[in-house]
UniProtKB/TrEMBL annotation:
Parts of the chain that traverse the membrane: 39-61, 82-101
SUPFAM superfamilies according to UniProt: F-box domain (SSF81383)
Comp. bias (Basic and acidic residues): 8-20
Phylogenetic classification of the source organism: Eukaryota, Viridiplantae, Streptophyta, Embryophyta, Tracheophyta
Protein name per the record: F-box protein AT5G49610-like beta-propeller domain-containing protein
Domain (F-box protein AT5G49610-like beta-propeller): residue spans on this chain: 132-339
InterPro entries: AT5G49610-like_b-prop, F-box-like_dom_sf
Alphabetical keyword list: Membrane, Transmembrane, Transmembrane helix
Stretches for region Disordered: 1-25
Pfam families the record matches: Beta-prop_AT5G49610-like
UniProt organism field: Aegilops tauschii subsp. strangulata
């Protein structure tokens, strides 16, 4: 105990030590902290100072470029939401609505140049025929129709020097005349973004539902998973979300979610919360931030309430209930231009 007390006392009242030029200088408390590598790593954990700190000296740059530190930094400070892409005006997606970027507020001043870069990004001459399909960590997946030709590409508004990555033609269904649903999904593992293509077919005679999943590897779509199950009725339209290695599929007016586990190639079902039927406009599925569950957002029209549930394990947890009257009044007070805007994706 005495040794520890003496050590603390010396730290609080350090002795003067001779410098190289023969003068004595008392160590300041700030230098005691900055010279401690363990404390330095904690200091550099703040996102607003990380980049600036790397320019101070080689020792700080070494700490900030250490892979372990970068992994810790990303876990503590996940990428923040810069803003939303919206289709403005009263037009719907396929009617040529203008694509606009609305930044989240408030944002630290350090992010102003990046927000300006995203807001000024051009997706091409055919912006009025462009549809945003997915957005994750600054990579924006788009679909563009030029006449009868449908193309897909990945834009990176934060890196304007990079050209758009063109996605190769999508695999086709093996049998024609059956109900077909397809979509492109994305997932991130170890900081690497991957794209998957889901192709679902329903055979009315046998009531078979078959899903094939392809992964884009080296510019080629490769088979990733395939599974077949029996369904009692025809699917009208599907809402799909990818969480970890599971694909969640919900059909309009259904009271359950179909889940495909790509690891086991098996299907399962999840009953929706009591009193909720899935609707393509009033209900939205989204992945949880830690990829351990799925969120369900549903609008109750009669009550004018927006309810948010989280499904983890085998249960639904009601996370929040929002009064739409109050939310709408707040939005109108903030910005009258949002009256007819349609929210679509988060950057």
């Amino acid at each position: 105990m005495e040794d520890a007390s003496e050590e603390i006392s010396q730290r609080l009242r350090p002795e003067k030590k001779p410098c190289a030029d023969g003068e004595s200088q008392q160590h300041l408390p700030a230098s005691m902290v900055l010279d401690d590598d363990n404390l330095l790593i904690e200091i550099l954990s703040f996102p607003t100072t990380l980049v600036c700190a790397t320019l101070v000296c080689k020792r700080w740059l070494c700490h900030a470029s250490d892979p372990k530190f970068l992994s810790l930094f990303r876990n503590r400070h996940p990428p923040r939401v810069l803003g939303f892409y919206i289709y403005g005006g009263s037009a719907w997606i396929w009617l040529g609505a203008p694509l606009l970027f609305v930044p989240m507020q408030p944002q630290p001043p350090e992010l102003a140049p990046f927000i300006s870069r995203v807001a000024s990004h051009s997706f091409g001459a055919d912006n009025d025929r462009l549809c945003i399909m997915d957005c994750r960590n600054g990579s924006v997946l788009t679909r563009c129709r030029r006449g009868t030709i449908l193309t897909h590409g990945v834009h990176r508004p934060l890196c304007p020097q990079r050209d758009m990555d063109v996605i190769p033609p999508l695999p086709r269904a093996q049998y024609h005349g059956q109900q077909i649903f397809n979509t492109i999904l994305s997932k991130e593992e170890g900081g690497v973004l991957s794209y998957l293509y889901m192709l679902a077919e329903f055979f009315s005679k046998t009531k078979s539902f078959r899903v094939r999943v392809y992964m884009l590897q080296g510019g080629v779509w490769c088979m990733h998973a395939s599974a077949t199950t029996q369904l009692p009725r025809l699917l009208t339209s599907l809402a799909v979300v990818l969480v970890d290695d599971k694909i969640y599929m919900a059909d309009t007016f259904s009271d359950e979610i179909i889940v495909l586990d790509m690891t086991t190639s098996g299907f399962s079902t999840i009953l929706l919360p009591q009193g909720v039927n899935f609707h393509c406009v009033r209900t939205i599925m989204s992945r949880a931030g830690d990829a351990s569950g799925v969120y369900l957002t549903h609008i109750h029209v009669k009550e004018l309430q927006l309810c948010i549930w989280l499904h983890k394990g085998d249960n639904w947890l009601l996370v929040d209930t929002i009064c739409l009257h109050q939310m709408w009044d707040n939005l109108m007070m903030l910005d009258q231009t949002l009256r007819m805007s349609i929210l679509v994706l988060i950057v």
